[in-house]
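Sequence only, no structure available. Ideas?
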Amino acid sequence: MKFANSVAGLCLVLAVAGCAGPSVAVTPNENLTVEQRAETPSTSGAAAFGTQRVWASGLSVVVSAPRSLAPSETAIPPAKRTAVFTITVYNGSKTSYRPSQLSVRATADGSPAAELVDSVQGLNGLAAAVAEVPPGRDTQIQLAFAVSELPARMQLTIQPGGQGQDAPTVFAGQA
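Reply:
I predicted one. Tokens follow.
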């Protein structure tokens, strides 16, 4: 009987957690899969890079800490340094997700940062993310942004359904 009560209590907690607002921050545990991490709600507000955000639709996003990269000479726009992020999108919804719906805006020290495309280094931008993600699967997208040579405070604002469709969430940290 105790086991049944424990299971019922756990189900109730998970059901209430699933009804959270537009997005919930989750600090990833490297031993869990993305799907498992999506079930553990935490605090809201700006999330540190490496933290997972979950929307009511079941979609979740993790933005990696940036890595610095010197762009090739063919990069557009030209830049001296690039901050490269890996964005992992997990589709916890019941329908396929098109990553082309993803809206990502970046700022560096409060100023807009331009998305950089550098096909020589495999950085083809958000426009190249065209494969649908079936329910229960995830995908990774690498995005690069032109930044100054000096360290900068970066913020990435993400909306999985595009601008105006889902509540935005902000990931922030040093790049």
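The chain has two helices and twelve strands.
Hope that gets you unstuck.
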